[in-house]
């Protein structure tokens, strides 16, 4: 951040680099739209930009250190005209967590802006250009979304943040401290933004939230409704072909939302429902507020509503105090659930979280490493089995990008599998395919018919 009052050249081009979760991807898109709305041009890479925005994530291990490493690399290169270094902005959850410490630690950062304040980014850029302090990590009660510009041209699949923040306070997690309390965006605003996304080219919308199924709002008659009500309203948006949502918490998995999986054809048969551990004592230590038995009961009810649903999850191994018995319980819940996809991590402490103070019960690194390898081997086996069981099915594919081979395109199945096909159909098309081959991470398909244009 500027340490004096030296005036800098206002940036004319920008590049936003987003790390971490899908909500960060959404935030990065909105920041790009904000800057573009002020007349700035998108650069193809950080090396070609006058302004580089690092939209950071605080979930991964050593997240802050990796940000500082990026800052150093960017600061070393000259601007695109061989002049001064680009203006550097640190945004997102690391910016929120570190705040003014970023300014103290490096003089190469011009702007620090938290995830609830990025609607002020153009103003902060102007301040930095004038040599003024440009730090904003406020978390105001008023929604930032009303200050954002209208949605621009979209890829076939788009993100829509409907809920932010978290009131769950899992003992390992920084989100309540970096994103704030749970808030839900108004239903009418979300429907309007969804329509704008569809008008801009989106065929599929993924609803986002730290606890997306904690969303609540009122319908036209003022009646309280949950996420299932919003999904049913979006089901009526003309031109929208697919609806997804992530990430969910088991405690907010209502029967109404479960029923929507059986009732709403546009709601894709995919559910990301993190459990984190299969051990009740560890779940209690994590403050997860659900048990292994209640989690499995939810999965059973979801599958009763939508038998072909793909279940995804998150797991942490090596949480403080985790015994061999606790870890075996995690393997048991994986076997009982049978996941189509999953994300698994070795526990690492986050400063400021209660779990970081449990240093007397830390699991030795070599034991945690072994447990992670065993867990991932089982999860990979299940993912491969799910993909293999898909072979022979006929389904609809949404083409999202070009493949590596000439004439090849890659799209997503309803179960969120990547499928590659040979076709001349344009990106954004919905095509009918037969799934003919399966690997651990993708499938092959053969076109049967096109069912929609771009």
Task: Give structural notes.
The chain is an alpha/beta fold and 454 residues long. It folds into three domains: 13-136, Methylthiotransferase, N-terminal domain (Rossmann fold); 150-389, tm_1862 like domain (pyruvate-formate lyase- activating enzyme); 394-452, OB fold (Dihydrolipoamide Acetyltransferase, E2P), CATH 2.40.50.140. It is built from 13 helices and 21 strands. The chain has helices at residues 22-37, 63-76, 92-98, 100-105, 121-129, 175-178, 187-199, 227-234, 255-263, 280-286, 292-305, 324-337, 365-390, and strands at 13-18, 41-42, 51-56, 87-91, 111-113, 135-136, 157-161, 163-164, 183-184, 204-208, 216-218, 224-226, 242-246, 270-272, 310-317, 341-346, 394-402, 408-412, 418-422, 430-438, 442-452. α8 (227-234) runs parallel beside α9 and α12 (324-337) packs parallel to α13. The model has no long low-confidence stretch (mean pLDDT 90).
**Annotated CATH topology of the largest domain:** pyruvate-formate lyase- activating enzyme
What level of helicity do the residues show?
A: 25-40%
Give the helix tally.
Answer: 13
Number of strands: 21
Mean pLDDT: 90
Q: For the report, how would you describe the main beta sheet?
A: 6 strands, parallel
End-to-end gap: 44 Å
Spatial order of the strands forming the largest sheet: 2-1-3-4-5-6
Shape: globular
As a whole number of angstroms, the C-alpha radius of gyration is 23 Å
Work out the strand percent: 15-25%
**CATH architecture term of the largest domain:** Alpha-Beta Horseshoe
Helix/strand-derived class?
A: alpha/beta
Number of domains: 3
């Amino acid at each position: 951040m500027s340490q004096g009052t030296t005036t800098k050249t206002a940036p004319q081009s920008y590049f936003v680099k987003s790390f971490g979760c899908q909500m960060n991807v959404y935030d990065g898109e909105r920041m790009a739209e904000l800057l573009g709305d002020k007349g700035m041009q998108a650069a193809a890479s950080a090396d070609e930009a006058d302004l580089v925005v690092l939209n950071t994530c605080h979930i991964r291990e050593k997240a802050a250190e990796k940000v500082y490493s990026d800052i150093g690399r960017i600061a070393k290169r000259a601007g695109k005209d061989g002049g001064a270094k680009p203006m550097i902005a640190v945004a997102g959850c690391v910016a929120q967590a570190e705040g003014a410490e970023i300014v103290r630690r490096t003089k190469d950062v011009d702007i620090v802006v938290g995830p609830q304040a990025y609607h002020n980014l153009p103003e902060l850029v102007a301040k930095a250009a004038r040599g003024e302090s440009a730090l904003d990590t406020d978390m105001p009660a008023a929604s930032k979304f009303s200050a954002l510009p209208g949605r621009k041209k979209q890829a076939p699949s788009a993100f829509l943040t409907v809920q932010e923040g978290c009131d769950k306070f899992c003992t390992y997690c920084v989100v309540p401290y970096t994103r704030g309390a749970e808030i839900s965006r108004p239903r009418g605003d979300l429907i309007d933004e969804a329509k704008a996304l569809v008008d801009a080219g989106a065929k599929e919308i993924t609803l986002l939230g730290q606890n997306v199924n904690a969303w609540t709002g009122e319908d036209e008659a003022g009646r309280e409704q949950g996420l299932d009500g919003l999904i049913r309203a979006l089901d009526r948006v003309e031109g929208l072909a697919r609806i997804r949502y992530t990430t969910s918490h088991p405690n907010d998995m209502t029967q109404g939302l479960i029923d929507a999986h059986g009732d709403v054809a546009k709601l894709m048969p995919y559910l990301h429902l993190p459990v984190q551990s299969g051990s009740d004592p560890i779940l209690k230590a994590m403050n997860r507020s659900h048990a292994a038995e209640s989690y499995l009961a939810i999965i059973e009810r979801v599958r009763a509503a939508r038998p072909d649903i793909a279940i995804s999850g998150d797991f942490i191994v090596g949480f403080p105090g985790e015994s061999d018995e606790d870890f075996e319980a995690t393997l048991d819940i994986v076997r009982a659930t049978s996941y189509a996809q999953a994300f698994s991590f070795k526990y690492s402490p986050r400063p400021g979280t209660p779990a970081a103070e449990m240093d007397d019960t830390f699991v030795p690194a070599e034991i945690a490493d072994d447990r992670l390898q065993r867990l991932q081997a089982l999860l990979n086996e299940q993912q491969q089995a799910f993909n293999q069981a898909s072979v022979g099915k006929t389904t609809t594919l949404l083409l999202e990008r070009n493949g590596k081979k000439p004439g090849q395109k890659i799209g997503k199945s309803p179960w969120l599998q990547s499928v590659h096909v040979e076709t001349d159909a344009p990106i954004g098309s919905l095509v009918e395919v037969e799934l003919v081959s399966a690997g651990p991470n993708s499938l092959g398909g053969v076109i049967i018919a096109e069912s929609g244009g771009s």
